[in-house]
Amino acid sequence: MAPQWIGDAVMTEPLLRRLRARGERLTVAALPWVAPVYRAMPQVDAVIELPFRHGGLQLRERRTLGRQLRGQFENAYVLPNSLKSALLPLLAAIPRRVGYLGEARVGLLTHRLKNPKDKPPMVAFYSALSGEPGVESDRPALALPDAQVGEVLQRHGLARGAYVVMAPGAEYGPAKRWPHFGALAAQLDRAVVLLGSAKEAAECEVIRAQAPGQVRNLAGQTSLAEAFGLIAGAGHVVSNDSGLMHVAAAFGVPQIALFGSSSPLHTPPLNARAQVLWLKQDPDYQPPLDCSPCFQRECPLGHFRCLQDLDAARVRALL
Question: What distance in Å separates the CA atoms of residue 243 and residue 252, rounded to the nearest whole number?
Answer without folding.
Answer: 15
